[in-house]
Fold this protein.
Amino acid sequence: MDWVERVRTLRQWSGNGVRAPHKPLLMLYALGRFQQAPEQDLRYTEVERDLKDLLRDFGPPRTSSPSYPFHHLESDGVWEVRTDHGHGSPGSTVGVLRSSGARGQLAPELRSALATDPLLLGRLTQLLLDTHFPPSLHADIAAAVRLDLEDAEEARRVTVSVRDRRRAAELRREVLSAYAYRCAFCGFDGAIGRVPVGLEAAHVRWWAFRGANSLHNALCLCSLHHRLFDRGVLGLDPARRIRVSDRFTGRGRAARDQVLELAGRGAEEPRHGGEPIAPENIAWHSEQVFRGEARTAGPVATN
Ligand SMILES: [Zn+2]
């Protein structure tokens, strides 16, 4: 059985760039639990609580039920469900999963493959992260599901092609230079010697969702604003003004200066007539990543 291929092709409910990370998050959660207690099954009620948190923190802005992946992942052959009445999932309804005492677990063949191949867990983890999330979120997600990313990083060196790594380095050079080595949101332009520091190329439409490696889909952002942009705290409106989520909180002066006061400010454009971010990429980010509503610009009161 090629488990890597099976996990790569988990059946999704939606296409066209719509994020549906429910099954991948359940898989990552199950791998994390497997790493801690390989033979222990997971009660639906417990999974429901934890997966709800994961979907809220790392899923798309719309809400959805953890019962769907719990039931539907079984048809991908990587997960099995049992109830008090025997094998097989009783359905995707929350009530019936709770009342039947449903429990889930990685499929037995997958568990034995993980036990025999010490590299497999890292490969599957990295694959799930690469296929569904941008790199800036990988450490946070791994920590949330209690997976050790070191194994995954090792696997990544084996699976990410030299060509992809070169292309990522090229894009970074191209984007940083187009934006004159300044964050497009705050103007941060740190360097040590002649080398920029704390500046990154941020995809607007994620690479994992067929986002292009080009200027019309990438911004030069400082590390803080890159992270907040990928978590949906920051976004752009069609006129490329910065949006700040009304869900974001931060009481101190730094949160005010570095985040809240960006609301409504125009993002920097690339210099020398470089191609600015395309509207369709902004629209994807607004629908799939940005959380809640945009705050209105204006004076921000803090303690
Ligand atoms: Zn910045």
Notes: Strands lie at 42-43, 79-83, 86-87, 103-106, 191-192, 195-196, 199-203, 218-222, 234-236, 242-244. The chain has a mean pLDDT of 91.
